[in-house]
Every structure is written in structure tokens, then in C-alpha cells.
Amino acid sequence: MIITLIGFPASGKTKLGKALAEKLDYKFLDTDELIEKNCKEPLQHTVNRMTRKEFQELEENTILSIKNAEKIVISTGGSAVYSKKAMEYLREISKVVYLKRSFGDCYKKIMKKPDRGLVGMDPNLSFKENLKRLYEERYPLYMQYAHIIFQRKEKSDIDADKLINILKTDK
Fold this sequence. Notes:
Blueprint (H helix, E strand, L loop, with lengths): L1 E5 L6 H12 L2 E4 H9 L3 H7 L2 H13 L7 E4 L8 H10 L1 E6 L2 H10 L14 H19 L2 E4 L4 H14 L2
Parallel strand pairs: 1-3, 1-4, 2-3, 4-5
Helix pairs in contact: 1-8, 2-4, 4-5
């Protein structure tokens, strides 16, 4: 089985993804880390030097390059949902799980590491206004593409166990 985690930045895709992969004895793949490795620079630098369209094409091509995978947990970038092609591909090859977390919780976590790669920032808005706009813009897309909606509540280890139980019953 392939499990894909989608959600807003700071929803816990990487932390929960690693915990899930460890518990299931799966591999873990973070598409943001794959982009960093291929571009040989931090994600935010790549986001800053590309147009939004260019970055979304890069993100889409990175996702579409995932072939012949099995027993893997994929953590996508928060903006992956903008690509219909990539999301339909992920829905076809994997069980897509939306990690739902409140805007307030995501915002608090983002403020601890505000230099993360954020796509779609408007220079005319404050940082918080930008995040709120992106959260509201992406929410219906996360809902549209998810097979499973999982509300993040606990630490990653506990949530990983809960998600494994849901995945077992959702065949």
C-alpha cells in the first residue's frame, strides 16, 4: 500500500509521516525534501526564485516521477493540491489522507519556523493574512482529493496508531 499525506503547512505531514512509516515498516518520502535535493538548495530559495506557475510545475513533475513505489508513505508539499494532474495521480496510486488541523494550530507552528517554503504569498498582505487566505483557498482542495480526512489531535506517535487503525478498516 502507498499512503499519501496532504495538508496545510505545519499540519504534521512530515512528523506523522515518519512515525507512520516507522510503525508500518514502510519507506518515507517527502516531496519537499526531494525538490530540495534535486534543486540543491533550501525549498524557500527555490520558491523565491521561481514564479508560482514554475514552482507548481516542478512540484507536479516531482510527484509524477514517483513510480513503482510500494510500502511507502509520501508527504507532499502543502501546495501540491493546486495540481489536478498530480492529485489525480496520487489518488490512483495511493490512499490520500488529509491531515486536518485548525488554522490557529498551523499558524502557531509556522511561526516557530517561518522560513519554510510557502507558495502563493501576496506581498500586499501581512504574513498572517497570507496564511489565512492560503488556508481558506486550499481547504476545499484538500477535502476534494482526500480518501480519508484525519483530524490531527495528538502527538505524532499516537495519531499514527489511530491512522493505522483507520487505514485497516478503510479497504
